[in-house]
Design goal:
This protein is 45% helix and 14% strand.
Amino acid sequence: DKTLEALPDEGVRRVQVVCPGFAVDCLETLEEIAMENRELFEEAGGEHLDYIPALNDSPEHARALLGVLEDWLP
């Protein structure tokens, strides 16, 4: 939160945010990260916060998961 609030004072007007610890979007990522942090950033003078969504149920996510698990499957 404090980092996003400080960025506009450092000349950063646009940011992209990703949550690599989440495999799927949930209420926490959508509400707290995408919405609340966007509001904090813009109120501090930022112009745009772009939330990059998780892979969720996409085919890319399924392929990535399979790639990790293949070595462990009989």
